[in-house]
Amino acid sequence: MLKKLGFLMLLVMTVVGLIACGSNGTDKNESVSNDGGTDTDSEAGEDALEPVEIVMMYAIGDAQYAQAVAGLLEDFQNEYPHITIVENNSGTGSYLETMTTADAVGEFPDIMEMRDTQLFADAGKLAPIPEELHSLFPELPEINGEYYVAPGSAQMPLGIMYNKDIFEELSLEIPTTLDEFEELSLTIKESGVSPIVVGGGDLWHMAFWINKFLIDHLYADNPDWHADRVNGEVSWADENVVEAFTELKSIWDQDLVDSGWLSTPDNQTISLLTTERAAMLYSGVWMINQIIEANPDFNLGFFALPDTEGNISTVGLPAPAGWALSTEAAQDEAKVDAYVKFIEYMFAEENYEPFLAATSGVSSTHDQITYDAPEAFESALEVYNDPSVTKSLMINQFYGDNLIPPQFRDYFYKVIQEVLLEQYSIEDALEQVDREWDVLYEAWQAE
User: Fold this and answer.
1) Is 0.85 surpassed by the pTM of this model?
2) Are 389 and 314 spatial neighbours (Cβ–Cβ below 8 Å)?
């Protein structure tokens, strides 16, 4: 049982059955000997031919990303037929719940896409990545003096994906303040189109809007806010937090969000946008390719959402997330070798470039990989490269002294949903949140 995750085992849920996908063939190191037989280039090459099975887990909530990873794994196994990848993924619940459940039932993966890195590293579940991989990356997130993940891509900003045709028809300009954003949203509403589509049917989708206002009012000015809360120097009921969610709720109070938002899953937001039932979607750049794929003729734009003063603060700092190796797998040389081969294969330019193109990603390696990208992505890249934009992490991406209790994020998102549904006042909800932080933090530290 995990030291820091013991109390999360109550979240145990059904895990998707193991799906084996492998292939047979001849390793690329095999060569023809003079006597007509075959040998290998070296003893190391011969060892690498020993069959090895790897249990792997990655997030599948985003269909385009999951498809890109699945394709990468298929190609990888064709390149290394002695390595069989067994996927152990789940499409329900948060990814943290999925990881915790897998550990609870004895199915913690060998290789995984890791997001709550410090949580699992502190619990002894992760091994540092092999030193031979360090040189692939210009920077690696450090936790407790070790590097536990190979970052899949750089973290791009969140922003508004919007229908440029609607903006042009209504003579709307990209807003320079939050007030201007609300004004143009009212104009769109008056035209008979829902201004904003929100995929509130998936709790994790609420992260986009909630973190927007957390960054504007808390993290942009004080990235150590969580550590200050632990020390009792700030509170979730403080005035600036109330202001943050007053601004968020104002968008809902003016009916600027599509009426079915609470039952709309994230994967249906694209349909509402491309069929002009809604004009805007606040999300990540990974949605750009999916929107264009759904409607190649869709005139898509992107802009970062400013605050009331016209400043832009958004997600964009390197997060301690990426591909990790379990402590148990690290005891098996064959599995370590498979992990190294997978990372080297994934980040080889000929494989990494199509992966980034499919997922609208930016290289996390030394290689400055470029590819043909839609105009909307180019707009997002300008925000990413703009030195005047304040970059931050999302609430659950902070680490070190700023790590939050494991259950707090989803609890917090749910409370804010209930505020938007008028079930609580903002002040009462945040006072409740502040008390619950203490309860969860104390229980977590007691494990």
Assistant:
1) no
2) yes
**Per the structure block, which two tokens stand in for 132?**
């031979």
Instruction: Output the CA torsion sign for 297, 299, 199, 157.
Output: positive
* Host H or E run for residue 127: strand 126-127
The full set of domains in the chain, from first to last, is 6-155+318-372 (3.40.190.10), 158-315+381-446 (3.40.190.10)
Q: How many CB atoms lie within 10 A of CB 72?
A: 19
Q: pLDDT tens digits, the chain, 447 residues: what are they?
A: 444 444 443 333 333 333 333 334 333 333 333 333 334 333 445 455 799 999 999 988 777 888 999 999 999 999 999 999 999 876 556 788 888 888 999 999 999 999 999 999 999 999 999 999 999 999 998 999 999 999 999 999 999 999 999 999 999 999 999 999 999 999 999 999 999 999 999 999 999 999 999 999 999 999 999 999 999 999 999 999 999 999 999 999 999 999 999 999 999 999 999 999 999 999 999 999 999 999 999 999 999 999 999 999 999 999 999 999 999 999 999 999 999 999 999 999 999 999 999 998 999 999 988 889 999 999 999 999 999 999 999 999 999 999 999 899 999 999 999 999 999 999 999 999 999 999 999 999 998
Question: H/E/C letters for each residue in 51-106?
Answer: CEEEEEECCCCCHHHHHHHHHHHHHHHHHCCCEEEEECCCCCCCHHHHHHHHHHCC
